[in-house]
């Protein structure tokens, strides 16, 4: 019987890689391999892929820029999909911009400023892709993606089209993207403004990130969302875990809500730190910390 991977490779145009290492494709550089890694060449190839995985009953995992992502050491079964940076095209009309979901987050401020538009200052220094930023409703205290998103293009096995952003129910670091759907483009509405001032605000925000976050080491960013009226980093530090190490992973000494890969860390190391923080914070403060990080792949029951 033919391997399902052979069938997908035959049907889908683009980059199709077997047993592809996923750690290099994440910000924290941790994780196993994908059964099949696919970067479709164009919208038609994506449609073919989505139809194939549905027909064959193959699991599908969508990977953005790899920020806020932890892959299991045992890897990911099925297909891991990553969109090309310029897929499937961009446009602008007045105060509205349409950008590719596979593009880096930094492209949105760059495009906006070139057109004399502002309102995206909250994205300064935010890593990953625009598709991932949409799925996570990325942002800071200064704003979130939901503040500027108007429409999102979703592709499914049955076709693609734009839907109003409100249909994704974007809330703090979460969204409700329909199962089997892939964000392919986003539309934002911005405002004319003082571009020089906007750039200055963003430079200041990036500088604060460099001072207060461990950006010189592999890390996926904030590990936990902030609980109401508090900060996860403060809670983790209060229970003595700032700088605590398990294997080759450690809670950062710069910011206690960041886990750093010291070199060769495993997902098991990272998860041990996450479990320990949850347990201690619950015991000391009665607060349940919720992960901002997506856990993807074949984790063992005892690891989660």
Task: Describe the protein's architecture and organization.
The protein is an alpha+beta fold and 304 residues long. It has 3 domains: 4-81, Uridine Diphospho-n-acetylenolpyruvylglucosamine Reductase, domain 2 (2-Layer Sandwich), CATH 3.30.43.10; 91-196, Uridine Diphospho-n-acetylenolpyruvylglucosamine Reductase, domain 3 (2-Layer Sandwich); 214-297, UDP-N-acetylenolpyruvoylglucosamine reductase, C-terminal domain (Uridine Diphospho-n-acetylenolpyruvylglucosamine Reductase, domain 1), CATH 3.90.78. It is 26% helix and 27% strand. The protein has 7 helices and 19 strands. The chain has helices at 4-11, 43-56, 107-114, 130-135, 195-212, 232-238, 267-285; strands at 14-21, 33-40, 60-62, 69-71, 76-81, 91-93, 96-100, 117-118, 139-140, 143-144, 149-156, 159-164, 182-189, 191-192, 219-222, 245-246, 249-251, 258-261, 294-296. Strands 6-7-13-11-12 form a 5-stranded antiparallel sheet. A hairpin with a 6-residue loop joins strand 17 and strand 18. Helix 1 packs antiparallel against helix 2. The longest helix is centred in the last third of the chain and has 19 residues, at 267-285. It is globular and about 50 Å long. The mean pLDDT is 94.
From the structure above, extract its key features.
304 residues; alpha+beta; Uridine Diphospho-n-acetylenolpyruvylglucosamine Reductase, domain 2; Uridine Diphospho-n-acetylenolpyruvylglucosamine Reductase, domain 3; Uridine Diphospho-n-acetylenolpyruvylglucosamine Reductase, domain 1; 3 domains; 5-stranded antiparallel β-sheet; 4-stranded mixed β-sheet
